[in-house]
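Course exercise 7: structure representation. Students receive a sequence record and must write out the corresponding structure in token form. The form below is the worked example handed out in class, using Protein kinase domain-containing protein (281 residues). Read each field label carefully; the graders check that inputs and outputs are placed in the correct fields and that the protein name is recorded exactly as given.

STUDENT ID: A-19
EXERCISE PROTEIN: Protein kinase domain-containing protein
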Amino acid sequence: MTERELLIAAQHPFIVQMHAAFQSEACLHFVLDYVPGGDLQGRLIAEGALDLERCRLYTVEVSLALGFLHDRQGAIYRDLKPDNVLIDGAGHVLLADFGLSKVAETSSTFCGTAEYMAPEVIKSLPHDKTIDWWGVGVLLYELLFGSSPFAHDNHLVVQRNILKQPIAVDEACDADASALMLALLVRDPAARLGAGASGTADVLAAPFFGALDVDTVIARGYTPAWVPPADGVATRESQEFDEDGVKLEPIPLDEGELDGEEGSAECADFDDFAFTPRGAS
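STUDENT ANSWER:
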């Protein structure tokens, strides 16, 4: 239910909007924005490393979305990765998939996607919103260089890389971009950029974002360099999305899973799941 509650309350220009929620006999459903530009993972696959200005705008928009979750909703996102950052019809990003999010100041749950986990999560230590800022650092690295700084086929090696591998930065990389990335990828969460009560403001004050006016960003006043084709809905349909992902079917509950007293109790947890905005018919 956390995902539903966060989506209802998350009225933000860089967070996907929920228009309704309902349930069928064995599935829960969200009605969300149609976002024709696919996700950042798709752009990285199609283009490789992105140009500096796109990296700057995408990163500040994601940072504003995370800051809203932290400061206004008291939530930790916990699963930042290119696959969860969608691109809308105007070319701006929308944070999506709140299935791992948690409304709490701290958590001890081991969760997330291997290459984007913060060191303290891997160590099963209590963690807070700073794990999301670590995720921004990994995301920025991937946008700038086209690959994750910790990638490996073996997930145990990925974890070791996150815990110990020095962050390699190309000398040709923009100095302000490198400085922000390295400040976010500090392994000590207390020393990481974004720690503390003024975390969001501290991140937004980074020199890398100095060329952008935050109020203009929030108003979606900057025109992104890449915008999905205007005929996307009419003729391209889901072309910007991963083909396998588009074909995924919902996973229904096993037959009989909701039978009996235990099943009835679980169903009762979702009695108030349905949601329709006020004024909608």
